[in-house]
Amino acid sequence: MGPRSLFSTWSSMSERKAPKSQEKVRAEELPDDLPGQAAARAVLRQALAAGKLSHAYLVTGPSGSGKHKLAQWWAAILTCQHDSIDHRPCGHCQSCRLRVAGSHPDLQILSSADGLLHREQVVEALHRLNLKPQYSAWQVLVIENADTLSPDAAQALLKTLEEPPESALITLTAPGVDRLPPTVVSRCQVVSLSGAGATEVGAWLQKHGVSVDTAQQAAAISAGLPGRAWEMAHGGLADLDPAMEIVRSLPELARRPKELFTAVSQWADKYAKREDMQRLVLWIGILYRDLWVYALTQEQQLLTLPVLADTYKNLVVATGPYDAARLSRIVSVVEKTLRYLEAYGNPRLALERLVLQVIQGVDPWLKE
Ligand SMILES: [Zn+2]
Questions:
Q1: Assigned architecture for domain 235-367
Q2: C-alpha 72 – ligand 1 centre gap (Å)
Q3: How far is CA 107 from the centre of its chain?
């Protein structure tokens, strides 16, 4: 496959309209000490200490894994003028002060404002990489959500990756290596993040002032992804009730198509932002997963939300016997929906498809 066909394949993938990037704002609210990053930080620290840095790194991880935090930490380490023993940026050298003020001449952080990183932005940033660094050894460029690079922006980046300027150090972030052209990936050292254990994430939340109950609950439902747990613990738990309302009402609405589509349309309006829809669908998935486990075992301690055991029991009573095989299929449909949303899928379409597939599964459970 020549570069042209490769880029056109990737082009059709990236042409899906990506939403405005909210992640950066959220990432800045997160504390710096995210769990689940120790191994990745150690790899980078060792490379720095050994003087064996690669010119390009690609940090991958699902939404909520803290990949932007890691990239920001790395940029801070590279630009700090002090070489502290634990490789934390000192925070008070001139370079650190400029970085914190957002006016460091040797540091650029690119992020898509409209869901697409355009060629002009990237070319300008790449041009600056040729300048001699003023405060540290490196001209650092971070490209967040590199999976939103337009095809010609990616091509421009590729040229620089093939022949990087002496002092250039580029860090990309993306959900996964499959979201970038292989030619770009092959020129980067990949650092992947997959989250931490629920216990570690729960303890970290508590350390940052979250109550024990909320911390445990947020950690349990976040699959060890600290960013997601943080969000759940700071308001995200509020979406549990709307998700429960959807799960509860679907069997009944399945009998009344007009009302069903009105309801779906209202939910889609309310959760029009991709991040919001992701959170809602995540909750829907947790509830169906719990219903599935409950239908199979009736064991409260196996549930993600044991506190809802009675509600699950009532749901089973209200809608007839739940078929575990169908519930398991719904859980996998929810997982597919989450992957679709992660790939910048359309939130409304995601919800419509999910509901239709759930209903096809729900129908036979109804009491006639
Ligand atoms: Zn410093």
A1: Up-down Bundle (1.20)
A2: 14
A3: 24
